[in-house]
Amino acid sequence: MKTMDFLHLNEQKVADVVSALHRLLADFQVYYTNLRGMHWNIKGHGFFVLHEKFENMYDDTAAKVDEIAERILMLGGTPENKFSKYLEIAEVKEVDNVTCGHEAIENILATCKHLISKERKLIGLANEAGDDVTADMMTGYLKEQEKMVWMLVAFSTCSCEK
User: Fold this and answer.
1) How many whole angstroms separate alpha carbon 21 and alpha carbon 11?
2) How many CB atoms lie within 10 A of CB 68?
3) How confident is the model at residue 158 (pLDDT cuts 50, 70, 90)?
């Protein structure tokens, strides 16, 4: 007996969703590690604000990693758990020793742009498979990320320049 026997989903159609979730999981794992490094290494102006914000962001990302892995399991897949494998398939690249707040925010915004694009595509795949739960999960991620992007852009833009 397996979970898919009860979900009323076509396993062949769901296979594309699972494959996309595997790639998203790898991207989120690398993103998580990048955020940890930024949290540890940030210096200078904005340290107190960014140090705390990066901690909140990596905690949120860790929760998403767990949700994505569990969704892969629910859909009959096996989530990867080796970082070497994540690095092979992730499109998000590792960053090292980011100490400047501006550089960190630029990296996070670029990563969010990538994740948002992948999540939108995943919504389409999930809808084609009739997988409302994965589509809803991705929609929730988008809602949070769009707000975070707006806030990071506002934080990094100085409107008082003359």
Assistant:
1) 15
2) 24
3) low
CA distances from 57 to 21, 64, 136 (A): 20, 11, 21
**Residues 6, 60: contact at Cβ < 8 Å?**
no
CB under 8 Å to 144, separation ≥6 — which residues?
60
**132, 13 Cβ separation under 8 angstroms:** no
pLDDT band at residue 5 under the 50/70/90 scheme:
confident
Each residue's pLDDT tens digit, 127-157: 999 999 999 999 999 999 999 999 999 998 8
Domains and CATH numbers, the chain: 11-155 (1.20.1260.10)
